[in-house]
Every structure is written in C-alpha cells, then in structure tokens.
Design brief:
Elements (H helix, E strand, L loop, with lengths): L20 H11 L11 H8 L5 E4 L9 H9 L5 E8 L1 H8 L3 E9 L11 H7 L4 E4 L2 H12 L4 E4 L6 H4 L4 E4 L6 E6 L5 E9 L5 E2 L7 H7 L2 E9 L2 H6 L4 E3 L6 E4 L17 H10 L3 H13 L4 H7 L2 H19 L10
Parallel strand pairs: 1-2, 1-8, 2-3, 3-4, 8-10, 10-12
Antiparallel strand pairs: 5-7, 6-7, 8-9, 9-11
Helix pairs in contact: 2-3, 6-8
C-alpha cells in the first residue's frame, strides 16, 4: 500500500479547560494588579481564598522535585473536591490529592509513576476502575506547549508531534494545515489553570520568585494561571531579588499568595537544599497498595496534622531535615569534589 498516512482530524476527548485568550485578558485586567502589594499569607489562608471545588489545578516543577507539598496537604485538609488536575509531570504531588479524594479528572502526560522506585502506587488505578477518576491523554512536550500558548496569549500552538498516535486519538487536539507550507500540524489548545501551585527557593513579599536549577514549565505556568500560590523556602528582602534579577523566573504581578514554608517540598527533593526522604516515600507507597492503607496514611500525616509544620514534626522534625540537607550536600560534593574543599595550602 502506498500513499500518505491518514490521520484523524481531531482527538476524541473534550478540552476540559476551554478558556480563550480574550476571556483571560479581560479576567486578568479585572482581577490582577501591577501594584507592589504585600502578598504574604499562611498556606491555610491561601488555599481557603483561592482554591475552590471544581477548579483546574496546575502543579509546578516535576513530580518528586521542587513540588509544593504544603499547599497540597492543605487542599486535602480543607476537603476540596472535584478538582481537575494537569498531570504534566505530576507524581507524588498528584498522588496525595488522589489519596485525599480531591480529584475527578487528570489530563495525563506523566502521571501515576514513581520513577525508579521499586514500588508503584495503586491509588489511580483503583479510582479509574471504580469510575471515580477520568483521564485524557497528552505528552510532556505537548503539555508544555499548551502552557506556552496560554503564556503568549494565543489560543493554540502548532507542534510536530503526537500525530498518528493513540495519544493524539485520546486527546482534545486537532489537525491544522500550515498556511505557508501546506503541512499538517497538531494544534494543542492553550491551557489556563484556575490555580497553579509552584514551590521556589526564594521570593520577596510581593511575589518575585527565584528558582535555583531547572525550571521545567514553571515560567509558562506562572503566566498562564488565573491564580498563583507560591510556597517558598524563604522570604527575602526585595533588595536580594534585585541584586540578581536574571534569576527572577516568576514576576510579582503573576502571583496571588506568597507562603513561607521551609522544607515545603518534603518528602520530595529541593535542589541544592535537601534530598528525597526515601524511607517516607516508601512508607507512602507501601500504604498506597490498599485502600485501607491509603486512608490510614492520609488520616495520620495529613488530616491528623494541623499544618505543614506539624507534619514535619511527625516525620522527624529538624533532625531529619538536617539529615536530608547533609545528603544533598554530599551529592553536590560527589558531582564536584572541589565544592566541599576548604581553604588552606
């Protein structure tokens, strides 16, 4: 058989977050400000104010790395329901929301896996089999371009991937023809989450944020989201931010809440600050093998704690956090032996 491969003209799934750029421009004009406003607040207040039942939630960074666990635990504590989540690179963060009964739909790119860890969570598969969780398909790159389209104020982005795949078939994407070349492209719709949660290394009280290391899709996600909750390892003076402005990945005018939460990515890694708490992640994964175990974990570590500080105390407190900091320091020395060198002859 010869001839050109025949593609379906569009995927079979609906776009669950169909906001248009013009609608968003109007919304931003009415609800955001460019004034320098003190946005510091507690995680509890930020979630209460900005996260509502049925919201579409975007999660920053990558599944086990620099994720904002403190706001996610608080979402579970406050009993949010029917959330739709961008499973762009969502692993442990998404899993906790699923375990807490908060999620009804996930746009899947990289979700439900736990990288190289030998135990796999079964929370998502149980919910899907029970008809309590729906999914649509995507890929990591195509998902990133959805955020990029939104950040650039356009309704879609043409990409050269997913055509002719089952991923395209089970997505909300469409085929478009390039007006210049006549070539077929996959059009991915802009994605404007109702709320995004991003954890950063440092921020000032206005919301200017600096990230050490890889930013993944956070530059675009911050500009695409209607509301942005920032959790940060430390709040610093504005002068600190101004000294190295090229590191300011997220500007203040995109941010709605700044929450200082030291060790706020635990049990996941915070690059250059602390390592994964592998024993605790293993404890969760073992618990997640059964519905009863999952419920017990959530009851103990999330619902049974009043806030993230209380949770940290339960998992070992300052002593355990210092141990994880030391492991991260050793990792840096292993990668660059001179990093730990002291002065002298």
């Amino acid at each position: 058989m010869t001839g050109e491969m025949v593609f379906p003209s569009e995927g079979i799934e609906k776009n669950v977050c169909p906001t248009t750029p013009d609608e968003m421009r109007e919304w931003f004009a009415k609800n955001k400000t460019v004034r320098l406003v003190d946005k510091r607040m507690s995680v509890k207040d930020a979630v209460s104010k900005f996260v509502k039942d049925g919201d579409y939630l975007g999660l920053g960074c990558f599944g086990h790395i620099r994720v904002g666990m403190a706001p996610l635990y608080e979402i579970v504590r406050q009993g949010r329901r029917d959330l739709r989540v961008a499973g762009h690179t969502a692993v442990h963060d998404l899993d906790i929301l699923l375990a807490g009964g908060c999620v009804s739909h996930v746009d899947v790119a990289y979700s439900f896996g736990h990288e190289l860890r030998p135990i796999r969570t079964k929370v998502a598969s149980r919910l899907i089999k029970a008809g309590k969780l729906k999914t649509t398909e995507c890929s990591n790159a195509s998902f990133s371009y959805r955020y990029k389209a939104a950040a650039n104020g356009i309704s879609f982005m043409p990409i050269r991937m997913t055509l002719g795949t089952d991923t395209f078939l089970h997505s909300p994407f469409k085929v478009v023809i390039c007006p210049f070349t006549g070539k077929k492209y996959c059009a991915v719709p802009a994605l404007y989450p109702d709320v995004a949660i991003i954890h950063v290394h440092k921020a000032d009280m206005y919301g200017n944020c600096q990230i050490e290391g890889i930013t993944v899709a956070d530059w675009d996600l911050a500009r695409a989201a209607k509301r942005l909750i920032i959790s940060t390892e430390e709040i610093v003076d504005e002068k600190v931010i101004r000294k190295m402005p090229h590191l300011t990945t997220i500007p203040y005018y995109t941010v709605d809440a700044v929450c200082e939460v030291r060790y706020g990515s635990h049990p996941c890694e915070m690059p250059y600050r602390y390592w994964f708490d592998e024993p605790h992640i293993k404890e969760y994964l073992e618990a997640a093998q059964t519905e009863q175990g999952t419920e017990a974990y959530v009851k103990k570590y999330v619902l049974g704690t009043k806030d993230f500080s209380d949770y940290l105390h339960m998992v070992g407190g300052e002593k355990r956090m210092r141990e994880l900091e030391d492991i991260e320091d050793l990792k840096k020395v292993a990668e660059n032996p001179w990093a730990g060198a002291k002065g002298g002859d």
